[in-house]
């Protein structure tokens, strides 16, 4: 199904701008997809600022979206996913994170960097309780 109102976009690496975003410990490079698709999708590169400090999204949370694709470009991270256990993702790995899955980041390398594509572009993140069967749920 063609989206006639979508625009062609060309995002130049030489003109990349890194800005704050959802996570305080990361910075974000918007790739122009949100504007080009009229908000149907967002694509950005997310990279660690090298901060060892945790942030709120290291708690169990969900993203209210229809689609979320993550490809690791550099480094590694460990996430725990509801019903999937702890997963270590590293350079070249891809996650298709199903809508509504509870998850949390456990740790990431100082050089962690991912390409993330999400639909819709303006999605919400909600802190939630830990899933049953996890150490946190027993507390």
Shape estimate: globular
Count of helical regions: 2
Largest sheet: 5 strands, antiparallel
Helix content bin: under 10%
CATH architecture: Sandwich
Strand proportion: 35-45%
Classified by CATH, the class is: Mainly Beta
- Would you count the extended β strands for me? 10
Mind telling me the CATH superfamily name?
Jelly Rolls
Textual characterization of the structure:
The chain contains 2 helices and 10 strands, in the order E-H-E-E-E-E-E-E-E-E-E-H. With 139 residues, it is mainly β. The chain has one domain (18-138): Jelly Rolls. The strands form 3 sheets. It has a 5-stranded antiparallel beta sheet. The chain is globular, with a radius of gyration of 16 Å. The protein starts with 25 loop residues before the first strand and ends with a helix. The model has no long low-confidence stretch (mean pLDDT 90).
What topology does this entry show?
Blueprint: E1 26-30, H1 33-36, E2 42-48, E3 61-64, E4 67-74, E5 76-81, E6 85-90, E7 94-96, E8 103-108, E9 113-119, E10 124-127, H2 135-138
Antiparallel strand pairs: 1-2, 2-9, 3-10, 4-7, 4-9, 5-6, 5-8
